[in-house]
Structure formats: structure tokens, C-alpha cells
């Protein structure tokens, strides 16, 4: 069985949990005899290809899709401007505008005949343009390779997956690692939402990383429950060894590690820290990460007068993450909406007692992490204080947590995904 898989990042070049999950899943699939062609916008050449074959979209020459670009654009149903973005146009004006946009897009795409499109693979200002170009290159790749099923990870790749399906007729699986409602709350980006909705509509099967995410997909995107299955994430600890560090201080360390954005709940961590410090002054709080709420978080820490006890490290990855866990006495993930959340598994594997929000998918599979509502800063502060003050509670959480996370294997998740592939391939033959 061969899978054409579309992703946006792959270790060691990652900005969050998406690339880590793709790595773990593909390793698990390889153990079940599934061959994976993993497409990414921009590969550096140092990616681990022991379990996958990396296809660098930036190195693909565009020919076939541009030979009949009208047909390609018609099949993937993509236009840069949607009706919800253009106010005050009557039907005739809107029709004319769409026609002009489409003609311009066709001419624009024709410029890439025989050329390569150099993707940044980042999340910059031209992200939507790269998503559209990625779909064009995805169509090119789909026409060149043999495969049995298509698998697209998160909204950035859904259009690519749809293009590959429309051009080949092969079944499509889309994997929901997060929805726009997780990232933005009620103030969603309508363009992203429409791309998510398109991918889910065109998919033959939708995989959600938790029951929490599955329920959001069914209620917010109108999918039939039979089309959405939950496959919980896991974590790959192969090659990860315990790290000894010299801290240089006697203070306890409580850590937040993740993007400093609305979704991750950094403000609740700060408010809980302020409460803990009033009862337990010999502790330092660390916020490791970056994001659009970083400056606001720094200002809030300063206003509370706890700056000498609060540290911002910036974005961490690789061994720096392991080192941060080795320093930590408590790990907190106060996410407002977390589809899954791999970092608590990493913390527990590093023998760090962990507190997670009840509004996280990982709460569905963990019994030995302390669970609190993200908004309940009193409960969060009490849990932190208890783990710092009572060694017996901390030791029990460490001992049971370590055993628990080691039972969550990517091989098990991959087995379920492989079964989904087999079912879709069988249906496609009849």
C-alpha cells in the first residue's frame, strides 16, 4: 500500500506539534508495511527519510497541470476572492469580477510552465498564495506518482489533497489536527474556514485527533458523524534519553511551553503564577515559546510585579525542549481549546508532574495528569501549589504518568489509520 501524504513541515524543521505528529505517524505506518510519499513545500535535505520518501514541492517542475490550467482550476474550485469578501456588488458586477479574477489567475499560472515554484514553507504574509501554489504542484505530483490513497494534514494542505483527488480519482483522507475555532475562537478567519470546509466535504474520510475535535467538526462544519473518526495522537520517545542538568538555583521551576497565542491560554498561566507566588515565593515561572500575545504577556507580568520570578525564553525546539523539561518541577498546559496536545506527554515522559486543561484532547487519554478548567485560575494555582509543596503527590504523578505515556504508541495509532486506508481502497475498487 502506498500513500501520497501532504504536510507542511517535518522534523527537524518544525514550529509546533504538527510536524512532530506527522513524523510519528509515518514511522508507525512504515512498521505496518505502508509506504509513504511525504510532500512538503520546502525540504532542507536533512529530514529523516528512514520511514518516508520526502518530495520537495519546491523542486517539482510544473508542466502537466499548466497544459490544461482551465481544467485544473475548475476541478479544484479555487478562486482568490470569495463572495463574502466583496461587499456592495450586484450579481452582474460580481460575476464580471469573478470572471476577471479567473482569467488573471489562469494567465498567472501559465507563467509557471516548465518552472519551479520556490516555497518558503513558513507561515508568512503570502501564506494563502503558497497554499494555492501548493495545490497546483500537488496536482503535478499526483499525475507523476503511483499511489493508492491521499492523506492531507491540516488546512494548509487540504486544497492540495483535493487537487490530487480530482485529478486521479484516488480516495482522500484529511487529518484534523486543529480547526479554525481552536485557533481563533469565535473570531474565525473565513478564508481558512472555507478551505477547511472544502477539504472535509471532498474527503472520503476525516480523522480527528480527539473526540473533542470530532465534535467540533460535526457541529461546526456539518459533517455526518459516520464520516469522522477519532485517532488519538501518541508520542515517539525512541532515541530520547534522560537529561541531567545543573540548575544553579534552589527555586522550583514551573513551565509553560507552547505558542503564546489565544488558543494556548498563556494569560491564565500568568494569573495562576501570581496567586502561587503569594503562597510559595521560592518558585520561578517560565514561559517558553513565541506568538502574538508575547508582548501583552510581558506587560501583564510587569504590571503584576512578578517580573523577577517570571522568565520568557522564546521559541524552543529539539534538545532545548528536553533541557527545559529537565529543569522543570511542574509543567502546565492551560489551553483554551487544544485538539490534542503532545507536550504533556513529553513532560510526563521526562518525569515532570503535569497539569492540563479539561478542554484538551489529551485529557481523554491521560488519567495521571491533574485536570482543571482553563479559566479556573484558583484551581490551577492550587494544583501547582500542591505539586510543589507535597512530594508524595508529585512522586505519584511522576511514577504513574511515566508508565501511562509509554503505553501510548504511534504504532497503535498507525494501525487504525492503515485500516482506514484499506477500507477506502476496497470501496474505491467497487
Describe the fold and architecture.
By secondary structure, this protein is of the alpha/beta class. It has 2 domains: 2-234 and 411-428, Glycogen Phosphorylase B (Rossmann fold); 252-406, Rossmann fold (3-Layer(aba) Sandwich). It is built from 16 helices and 13 strands. Helix 6 (158-168) runs parallel beside helix 8 (190-202), helix 10 runs parallel beside helix 11 and helix 10 crosses helix 14.
Question: Keywords, please?
Answer:
2 domains; Rossmann fold; six-stranded parallel beta sheet; single chain; alpha/beta; 16 helices; 45% helix; 430 residues; seven-stranded parallel beta sheet
In short:
The protein is α/β, with parallel strands linked by helices and 430 residues long. The chain has helices at residues 17-31, 64-67, 69-76, 91-110, 127-144, 158-168, 180-184, 190-202, 211-221, 266-279, 294-304, 319-327, 343-349, 377-389, 391-406, 410-428, and strands at residues 2-6, 35-40, 53-56, 149-153, 172-176, 205-208, 228-230, 252-257, 283-288, 310-314, 330-333, 354-357, 370-372.
| Sheet with the most strands, sense and barrel status | 7 strands, parallel
Mean pLDDT score:
87
- What is the alpha-carbon Rg in Å? 23 Å
Strand/helix succession: EHEEHHHHEHEHHEHEEHEHEHEHEEHHH
Q: Label the structural class.
A: alpha/beta
- What is the helical fraction, as a range of percent? 40-55%
Indicate the multimeric state.
single chain
Terminal-residue CA separation: 17 Å
The CATH topology of the largest domain turns out to be: Rossmann fold
Low-pLDDT runs: 79-89
Instruction: For the largest sheet, list the strands in their spatial order.
Output: 3-2-1-4-5-6-7
Q: What does the overall shape look like?
A: elongated
Fraction of residues in β-strands: 5-15%
Amino acid at each position: 500500500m502506498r500513500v501520497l501524504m501532504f504536510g507542511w513541515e517535518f522534523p527537524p524543521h518544525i514550529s509546533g506539534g504538527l510536524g512532530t505528529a506527522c513524523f510519528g505517524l509515518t514511522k508507525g505506518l512504515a512498521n505496518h508495511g505502508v509506504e509513504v510519499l511525504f510532500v512538503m513545500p520546502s525540504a532542507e535535505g536533512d529530514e529523516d527519510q528512514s520511514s518516508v520518501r520526502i518530495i520537495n514541492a519546491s523542486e517539482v517542475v510544473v508542466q502537466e497541470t499548466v497544459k490544461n490550467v482551465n481544467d485544473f482550476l475548475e476541478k479544484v474550485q479555487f478562486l482568490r476572492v470569495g463572495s463574502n469578501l466583496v461587499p456592495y456588488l450586484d450579481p452582474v458586477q460580481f460575476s464580471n469580477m469573478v470572471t476577471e479574477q479567473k482569467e488573471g489567475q489562469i494567465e498567472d499560472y501559465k507563467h509557471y510552465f516548465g518552472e519551479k515554484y520556490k516555497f518558503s514553507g513558513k507561515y508568512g504574509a503570502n501564506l494563502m498564495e503558497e497554499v494555492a501554489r501548493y495545490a497546483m504542484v500537488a496536482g503535478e505530483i499526483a499525475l507523476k506518482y503511483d499511489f493508492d490513497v491521499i492523506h492531507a494534514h491540516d488546512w494548509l494542505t487540504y486544497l492540495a489533497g483535493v487537487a490530487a483527488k480530482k485529478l486521479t480519482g484516488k480516495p482522500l483522507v484529511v487529518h484534523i489536527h486543529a480547526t479554525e475555532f481552536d485557533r481563533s475562537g469565535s473570531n474565525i478567519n473565513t478564508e481558512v474556514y472555507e478551505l477547511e470546509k472544502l477539504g472535509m466535504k471532498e474527503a472520503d474520510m476525516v480523522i480527528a485527533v480527539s473526540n473533542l475535535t470530532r465534535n467540533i467538526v460535526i457541529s461546526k462544519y456539518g459533517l455526518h458523524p459516520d464520516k469522522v473518526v477519532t485517532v488519538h495522537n501518541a508520542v515517539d520517545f525512541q532515541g530520547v534519553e534522560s537529561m541531567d542538568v545543573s540548575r544553579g538555583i534552589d527555586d522550583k521551576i514551573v513551565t509553560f511551553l507552547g505558542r503564546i497565542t489565544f488558543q494556548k491560554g498563556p494569560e491564565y498561566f500568568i494569573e495562576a503564577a501570581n496567586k502561587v507566588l503569594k503562597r510559595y515565593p521560592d518558585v520561578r515561572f517560565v514561559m517558553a515559546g513565541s506568538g502574538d500575545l508575547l508582548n501583552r504577556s510581558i506587560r501583564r507580568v510587569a504590571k503584576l510585579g512578578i517580573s523577577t520570578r517570571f522568565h520568557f525564553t522564546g521559541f524552543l525546539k529539539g534538545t532545548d525542549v528536553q533541557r527545559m523539561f529537565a529543569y522543570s518541577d511542574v509543567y502546565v498546559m492551560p489551553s483554551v481549546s487544544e485538539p490534542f496536545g503532545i507536550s504533556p506527554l513529553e513532560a510526563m515522559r521526562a518525569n515532570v508532574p503535569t497539569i492540563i486543561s479539561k478542554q484538551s484532547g489529551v485529557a481523554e487519554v491521560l488519567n495521571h495528569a491533574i485536570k482543571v478548567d482553563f479559566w479556573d485560575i484558583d484551581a490551577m494555582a492550587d494544583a501547582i501549589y500542591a505539586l510543589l509543596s507535597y512530594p508524595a503527590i508529585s512522586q505519584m504523578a511522576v511514577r504513574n504518568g511515566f508508565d501511562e505515556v509509554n503505553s501510548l504508541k504511534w504504532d497503535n495509532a498507525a494501525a487504525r489509520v492503515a485500516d482506514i486506508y484499506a477500507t477506502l481502497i476496497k470501496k474505491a475498487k467497487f
